[in-house]
Amino acid sequence: MVKGFNLLMQNIYGLGARSFWVYNTGPIGCFPEILTSFPSAEKDSAGCAKPYNELAQHFNVESKKSQHFNVESKKRLAQLRNELPQATFVYVSALYSLYTSPAKYGFALPLVACCGYGGDYNYNEAARCGETMSFNGTNIMVGSCKDPSVRANWDGTHLTEAANKFVFDGVSSGAFSDPPIPLKLACHPQYHFKSNFLQILMKHL
């Protein structure tokens, strides 16, 4: 998969692209759908299904000194920067902090779906968001929680508008990016040349 990603970037570059924002694989083990479907899965400190987050990390992360600092896709990006020196490659890592420190960012119950029904995670495959279900002989529509603005997960598999804004704000400012280039400078032509990169970045921050 990573090799295919490498080839894809080279092909897009060949078509004329010069600015690339590459997003990592998110913590799928924190999604209510996964947590409900695999209740016996080992949990991490955030309450997420550890094996499924490790599966995502297998694509993203390569171990360094027993800690997950080096990202496999970042390693590929480093190679691409050498192979395609006139392109800008920015790696974006976001989202997991929503689950480890939700209150810090104004969120609550990050593992629980806002729009859903039943169980510890308010998710039921047979009663998804917006669907109609029968409860004690009465048809009811599966609807939203009271305040989606403080919730991270919308329907078990997708983020809420508030969580998407959190991610966008971090990406647009460069806070979640490596190197930390704000989106407003994404197409700055001088960023395509490594020798000027740090000088230009410091000038605009």
> Mind telling me the C-alpha Rg?
20 Å
Structural class: alpha+beta
Beta-strand share of residues: 5-15%
Number of helices in the DSSP assignment: 7
Walkthrough of the structure:
Helix 1 (2-14) runs parallel beside helix 4 (72-83). The longest helix is centred in the first third of the chain and has 13 residues, at 2-14. The protein is α+β, with helices and mostly antiparallel strands and 205 residues long. A hairpin with a 2-residue loop joins strand 5 and strand 6 (138-141). The chain contains seven helices and seven strands, in the order H-E-H-H-E-E-H-E-H-E-E-H-E-H. Residues 62-71 and 192-205 have low confidence and may be disordered. The chain has a three-stranded mixed β-sheet, covered by helices on one side. The chain has a two-stranded antiparallel ribbon with strand order 2-3.
Topology of this structure?
Elements: H1 2-14, E1 19-23, H2 32-37, H3 50-60, E2 61-64, E3 67-71, H4 72-83, E4 88-92, H5 96-100, E5 132-135, E6 138-141, H6 161-173, E7 177-178, H7 194-204
Parallel strand pairs: 1-4
Antiparallel strand pairs: 2-3, 4-7, 5-6
Which keywords apply here?
205 residues, disordered C terminus, alpha+beta
In short:
The chain has helices at about 1-15, 30-35, 50-60, 70-85, 95-100, 160-175, 195-205; strands at about 20-25, 60-65, 65-70, 90, 130-135, 140, 175-180.
